[in-house]
C-alpha cells in the first residue's frame, strides 16, 4: 500500500453568530486557494 503525505494547516474563521458559521467561513475562504480539502478538526 502506498504511503500518503498530508499537509496540516490551521484556519481561523470568525462569526458573531456561531462557531459553525465561523468554521464555514474559514473553509469557504480556504477552498478558494486549496484543493482536496477532506478532513477538518475543530478545536
Briefly characterize the structure.
The protein has 43 residues and is mainly α. The protein has 1 helix and no strands.
Structural class: mainly alpha
For the secondary structure, the number of strands is 0
Q: In sequence order, what are the helices and strands, one letter per element?
A: H
| % residues in beta strands | under 5%
Main sheet properties: none
From the spread of the alpha carbons, the general shape counts as elongated
How much helix is in the residues? 25-40%
**Separation of the first and last Cα atoms:** 31 Å
Give descriptors for this structure.
43 residues, mainly alpha, elongated
What do you see in this structure?
It is a single chain. The radius of gyration is 12 Å and the shape is elongated. The chain is built from 1 helix and no strands. It is 28% helix and 0% strand. It has 43 residues and is an all-alpha fold. It has one helix at residues 19-30. It has one domain.
Amino acid at each position: 500500500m502506498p504511503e500518503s503525505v498530508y499537509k496540516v494547516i490551521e484556519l481561523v474563521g470568525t462569526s458573531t453568530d456561531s462557531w459553525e458559521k465561523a468554521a464555514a467561513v474559514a473553509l469557504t475562504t480556504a477552498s478558494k486557494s486549496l484543493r482536496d480539502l477532506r478532513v477538518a478538526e475543530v478545536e
